[in-house]
Write a structure and sequence with these properties.
46 strands; 574 residues; binds zinc ion; eleven-stranded antiparallel beta sheet; single chain; mainly beta
Length: 574
Amino acid sequence: MRKWLFHVCWALYLSVNAQDKYPLNYFASPVDSSITLAGNFGEIRPDHFHSGIDIRTQGKEGIPIYAIADGYISRINISPYGYGKALYINHPNGYTSVYAHLKNFNTLIDSVAKSIQYLNETFETDTLLPPLYFVKKGELVAYSGNSGTSQAPHLHFEIRDTKSEIPINPLYFGYKVKDNIPPTPISLSIYPLNENASVNGENKIKKIKILSGKEYYYLNPKDSIIAHGAIGFGIECYDISNDSYSKQAVHSIELLTGGKRRYYAEFEKFSFEDTKYVNAHIDYAEKLNNNIKVQKCFILKNNQLDIYKGTLNNGVVVYNDSIEHWIRIILKDFNGNTSMLIFKVKGTMQEFVPNALNTSNNSLIFKCTDENLCKKENIEIKIPEYALYDDVVFNLTISEEQSNYYSPIYDVHNDEIPLHKPYIIKINANKVPENLKDKACIASINKKERLKYEGGIYENEYISTQTKYFGRFAITADTTPPYIIPKYKTVKKNPVVDFTNKNEIRFMVYDNLSGIKSYKANIDGKWVLLEYDAKSNAMFYFFDDKIATGTHVFKIEVFDKKNNKNEYQFSFKR
Ligand SMILES: [Zn+2]
């Protein structure tokens, strides 16, 4: 009884403590209306966890965004990718609020941003500011938008610890989201974790659909699980809130065996340095091949993510008996709504015997804690230590030479295996013609035979580059300059385009392979601000009152990463 009471008190203390760490009533809402979420903290995104909340803006741009507390503008970040136009405000209580994918800033901040852009003659800027521009709680600082890598208009909102820059789940600061709906588990994955482990007699991943339920979930009795050896579990699940139909991340996942916690993950905070461990946290192959997000309830050897608490044997369960074992997986959302999956695993003492044909004798074991090197004829792979999440049996195969590449195609290990850091790939390039040496590069080739530029510079008969992915690689060349397509009406007879009643000049700009490296525009030889939105391949110039009435010359220049250049020039009337 005493012990039981102690556990309850301890659990209460822990939960109060987490909430208590952060000021609850200090910050106001960044928007006028009540907060409804299109995305929450900890969602699984490409190569990262979502580090904030996505607040709905009624599906449109231009919604006023307010400072959540007194502070000063500490950073202005403008990019065609990522956060797009983003504003950072430092608050005196040690936190920084971040507002991203903005359409624009308020008049003062806009003029500060423009003066930085004109001074450096660049659209893209990431500027840290000293305490110069102070704002008040509730002051209008920006308008919501869809800039950067945003799928639809919304406000991406973060609260970071100013010193460490670690983002913290904003809901810990008292923002209320209407949610009394518990999370939903979809499927359970069972992983044999070494070559002698088995699930239902096979040494491969078994996936089982979870029966629909409410709060308590079960498997179909015909989906019995018999396991031997080191086994890991994984769960596909989501959470929805009352005012939002979008599938969001659960707040915590707990796996219990024999009534004891074996694995626990909670999305309170994580560092940007660690966010890439998402690929170790999830079943990466399942995400890559089927776009399904399964979260593993076991921790890989080199997964240093700081969201796991009180795990036992890294979540791995070892079966070597013939009795039934009960397992519970508990899912919670931020409001504490809870769902539980209950199932049993029957152990077996029958060890799995791998087929001798499948184990190649010249295999290379790469330890994830070591630097690893693989040298073959005309190719060299160098993987830094702690780049792999687990030890692997490394494969490198060379296919026959193909006429459309300047090298054979190299199959470097397996694209279903993620990497935490880039590795070096160096390929012999002696087939590259002399006149193309400065245009040659390494490209990866996907299953649809589409090329992706990986970079590289020709040096001493070789091209080498760094990449974060395994897969198929070959040498190609980028000789095609970027495309520039004007998006305004031109009248053939009249070479001077009439822009008297227009407020922008717009182009569609894209590159076939290496991608856009730099771009600029000028009017009558003078640099002007050319904005770039990468996701829509759009570049645009907004007229300001600096352009006098009369005829002017507009010129745009775009370079790709292999220094192929395109330019476009025309006269216009204002
Ligand atoms: Zn977001």
